[in-house]
Amino acid sequence: MNKKLKMGMVGGGIGSFIGDVHRKAAGIDGMISLVCGAFSSSEEKSITSAEAIGISKNRAYGSFEKMIKEEAKLPEDERMDFVAIVTPNHMHFPPAKMALEHGFHVICDKPMTLTLEEAVELEKIIAASGKVFALTHNYTGYPMVKQAKAMIAKGDLGTIRKINVQYLQGWLSTALEKTDHKQAAWRVDPKRSGIGGALGDIGTHAENLVEYITGTQITELAADLSAFGEGRTLDDDGNVLLRFANGAKGIMTFSQIATGEENNLGVKIYGTKGSIEWYQENPNELVVRWLDQPKQVFTPGGNGGYPESSDYVRIPAGHPEGYLEGFATIYRSFAKELLLTKEKQPSAQHDFPTAKDGVRGMKFVYAAVESSQNNARWIKM
Amino acid sequence: MNKKLKMGMVGGGIGSFIGDVHRKAAGIDGMISLVCGAFSSSEEKSITSAEAIGISKNRAYGSFEKMIKEEAKLPEDERMDFVAIVTPNHMHFPPAKMALEHGFHVICDKPMTLTLEEAVELEKIIAASGKVFALTHNYTGYPMVKQAKAMIAKGDLGTIRKINVQYLQGWLSTALEKTDHKQAAWRVDPKRSGIGGALGDIGTHAENLVEYITGTQITELAADLSAFGEGRTLDDDGNVLLRFANGAKGIMTFSQIATGEENNLGVKIYGTKGSIEWYQENPNELVVRWLDQPKQVFTPGGNGGYPESSDYVRIPAGHPEGYLEGFATIYRSFAKELLLTKEKQPSAQHDFPTAKDGVRGMKFVYAAVESSQNNARWIKM
Amino acid sequence: MNKKLKMGMVGGGIGSFIGDVHRKAAGIDGMISLVCGAFSSSEEKSITSAEAIGISKNRAYGSFEKMIKEEAKLPEDERMDFVAIVTPNHMHFPPAKMALEHGFHVICDKPMTLTLEEAVELEKIIAASGKVFALTHNYTGYPMVKQAKAMIAKGDLGTIRKINVQYLQGWLSTALEKTDHKQAAWRVDPKRSGIGGALGDIGTHAENLVEYITGTQITELAADLSAFGEGRTLDDDGNVLLRFANGAKGIMTFSQIATGEENNLGVKIYGTKGSIEWYQENPNELVVRWLDQPKQVFTPGGNGGYPESSDYVRIPAGHPEGYLEGFATIYRSFAKELLLTKEKQPSAQHDFPTAKDGVRGMKFVYAAVESSQNNARWIKM
Amino acid sequence: MNKKLKMGMVGGGIGSFIGDVHRKAAGIDGMISLVCGAFSSSEEKSITSAEAIGISKNRAYGSFEKMIKEEAKLPEDERMDFVAIVTPNHMHFPPAKMALEHGFHVICDKPMTLTLEEAVELEKIIAASGKVFALTHNYTGYPMVKQAKAMIAKGDLGTIRKINVQYLQGWLSTALEKTDHKQAAWRVDPKRSGIGGALGDIGTHAENLVEYITGTQITELAADLSAFGEGRTLDDDGNVLLRFANGAKGIMTFSQIATGEENNLGVKIYGTKGSIEWYQENPNELVVRWLDQPKQVFTPGGNGGYPESSDYVRIPAGHPEGYLEGFATIYRSFAKELLLTKEKQPSAQHDFPTAKDGVRGMKFVYAAVESSQNNARWIKM
């Protein structure tokens, strides 16, 4: 019998957006079972969440420290296999470090840590631990993102010369943080978010997405960050010039004050032979333009898709998959790798974001802030 | 502790499209756990599937009869709560009847049965059983479908006058049934599909969708069915004139030989004050046109949505939900109703398709076939 | 010096929608000059229009009879070359007949005539006259329509099996004819429109478009026409089953009570190898789906277009052409043919709708009305 | 009789893209008649063009100097009223200056001149002449652009905070200038184009469009220009950070090496209450997002449009207008103003781009080049 991997969760009590997303995403493919959680720093609230979620209240803890210690004492076939960290940014490093040091694998929300220093340290801890670590840059889980990546890797688009990326949201257009809105509150608070606002929250997704798809890296950037919301100390909007290792140039724009936008992450990438365009809000279409052929539209599992993409499609073409499925793909690849590790087999190089991506993300945040503080001076990454 | 409902499955062995969809859909909201299955008529294959899926091989059965009998003997807190039937059409009625008669609730794929007679009989059996029965007309689970339904129910669009629906697929454009393609094979076989081909497979979805959204019913129809594929005895394409109880007129077109189409179910419904347009392949947009205001586009959880829609949204606006989530909504509503029944509480009228929809669907199939056999004569439904 | 062809207009005084369209369309390519007009049955109003338009008041007439007689007396290099008829339907036949019989070529708005009898007679008169006659089924002038036609003619899509067409407008959703709205008034008046309402006005466009693109013809139809507007005697909505000479089946839906729709003419045509989809409101995209390749999107003058299409493109790809340009293409092809006739050269078979299309359109109207009066019985065309 | 304004053309012989555009655009509204031209620097070629176009060969000149001198000698009701300049950039200033000084009005293609100095001088010459001067920044002629401008001017979108603009073409992705392609040749040649390549050709359109729509101005910019094409000395791609007078921030990206793009000019502008999105390739849709209402889509002449937009619509909603009509709107407004001037009436402030826009455009080009030469340092405009 193919037993499910056992997940413990840090954060993500009932009412949390991202905690629920992680639970649903972990559940879709039937490989993972949530068995315990430190859902809140209040044990009582943690138990309430556990009951609502449907797990035993004996496995609800009031702190991640307690969860890790107690679970470590349980028999191997009972205790959790890995920890999912879904807290605000300042609470990523501590539980990740402790879990790894107690022999647990870790899957963590992004950005990886509060500071670049933490990110660098965590990467070392992970390497030393021999455990599997995944970072939920979930947008890389979409089949059409994988199709774009495969097309570029195979040279279909020729040499990449222009890379534009946008991540536009409008939910902080008003002073939501001054209402009773928990997510807004910590997002605008440097103590919990770090030195980046929208930059850390969504800019890192944009950075990760273009580096993932193109296979090249940002070498330097010039960023003009703004805090339009009154009283905000962290950026809620940014425009960035980009230069890439392969000679490409690009531009990034991100915002949480782009009124009326919901979650409009999109990329346009131009090569010498062709180009791609993709938007997260309509994720099942990949537009490909060619030098001398009509424009094409690829779909998940549809005609002409590469195995690198179609292997990640769960249902036939025309049956749209969404955000949760893309997120689930990260969980599934992490789970497959974890199973190999558990069985002491060699890695199959399953495709999911790792500590390396996490460090890149934090370097990006630090470079952009430094640039912006210097009136958009070029900063190397 | 909020224990999960226990599901047993009939059909849906590894490699089945719809079995996997049911499993994933049942799993998303964390309310249901698959505990047993008669995944195949071969016990050996059933066990193989059970192992791949990750359930105990003791609970893998070689027939639905055996599953129902054996499970009924288990202690109440161990045995399955309900049966999910995911077999071809001819195998819907027998397991549904037996399960209900042994005290199990049932969720069944559509169309409800092989024949109209079976559908009428099953409706009676369900009523007599006091059990919960759901039919997976999954497209009614999409939030934007529920938004459309709510807008019409509230009178926002005025009196409905015109109802157009299409369901276009191309997967049977070639003679796929002559290759080693299981799904194509039973779809074109009257013994397993019944008297409707594309009509029963997707026409019933179209019929169900427009009746669900508009709240009115088809009273008569004139159908021109075709079997374009060489040697096919069942229709693979159809065009239908529709008249509705409220005076509206309409048109339906469905096809499985619409080359290049993936799963293009769409509706356009026109009232005296406004109209709606929705497509399943891009399910997170509902276009609403008005008599004297600019066109609007509603999104799940977005501005202006009614609670009747937004209550069914799992993640914030802009984070697309897809086919599995819509399907999961049917499972979740069924599960909620089942829990009430288990706890002997009154029904909360949770919104999911039932036997009534199943009988309508079979009446539609029979009326369309009779009409088409009489050169598209009007047939009352 | 390449002198411009001289146009006389019947109807189309200032304030007329379609008269202005004809003038602008005739003007775009610089081959035609408006020199005279019977813009109104009031000579005074006709002069007012002439002055506003910028032509000599000496060439403004109070009746088409007078215009034709007076112009015929002018020297050849001064008098009009052809008549453009832009009046309501009941005033198409009389001026067309008289103009042809006085040696003038004719371009006429659709439907060709008030009655089928007139259409048949006019076709004979045209043939006998040796003059050029064009019917402004303007939608055939769009480059992407021509691309679709060429692809089908070349067999790119294989055998055509399914033909769906819609023409949806909402401007008669309310009782506009009871306000001071001239166009609505004559459109709902059988004396001026004929036996078809929306059927004649836009249904004929839909019929013409699918026969033009596919090269096959409707052989029989079953129509369910409705007059939703209170007190209307002519249809304002219709749904039609179609059967074609080549074995294809299809469906047509048209409406002028489709609330919120502007001018939504669209076709979906499916062959054994591929299919096309095109909408007039976004005329510069032709979606082509294939059996085994990704969906393509063709654009006017863009990659992969056939000369049969790109020859009709005025400006580079990405510079949208619209309704007036499509209309102008009819005028230009008519003008080229007319020049050949003038110079007594053989026809170059320039591509524009003729009397044959006009007779088809009237037959369609008559068949649909007869079918609808017989409860959607099949009527041969 | 309302006589047509008489146009003389400099450049634009047969085969020229933009000359033909100007002719068609000038012709659509029936207010302007082409009477003469210096279509080529070869008198013979100029005559050939004149004949093909259909104007008298007596009015075909071998140089703009000759045209201006000869026409000036003609009687007032015979000679041209204004000059349309459609030559490469280096040939804008000389004919414009001479025409103005000889009493002719001028309409000129963009960018206004070869150099900023010329632009500043030309602005002075125009002011001194009392003649009407229009610059064909044609994209401001689209009704949906005017709707966007009106909505912002009325405060519907609140305070503008974020302004993104793109202008993406792919036609110079390959070394087209090394083939026999006249337009490519002069576009990459600093002697004929000036110091900006794509920057001057399309970047100025982007700059003009956002300043037109928003009513605010770029105050400083940081530009990263590239010449990807081998051997090119002028930019063929650029990314620019923008800061605006009203405090808004923005980003511009333009390219002529964006493979597969046709003419993808688009803007996204975000205010505190709402935002707009518009694309030139689909110009008849204006998407408006709101803080707390569903997204709307405005159409020319459609529901909810302001007179500031609908006054510029020629045909009913749903009948798409395109590039030529937008261009024609510039011509029409210029013509109306010219008529007032001719009749010595006060200006009605008709809305078309003028020398002021031309100077802004050249300042933008100079600032961007200076910035890019200084590694994207901020330059004030």
TrEMBL record, chains A, B, C, D:
InterPro entries in UniProt: Gfo/Idh/MocA-like_OxRdtase_N (IPR000683), Gfo/Idh/MocA_oxidoreduct (IPR051317), GFO_IDH_MocA-like_dom (IPR055170), NAD(P)-bd_dom_sf (IPR036291)
Domain GFO/IDH/MocA-like oxidoreductase: 145-277
Native source organism of the sequence: Aquimarina algiphila
Protein name: Gfo/Idh/MocA family oxidoreductase
Domain Gfo/Idh/MocA-like oxidoreductase N-terminal span(s) in chain numbering: 6-136
Pfam (any one): GFO_IDH_MocA_C3
GO molecular function: nucleotide binding
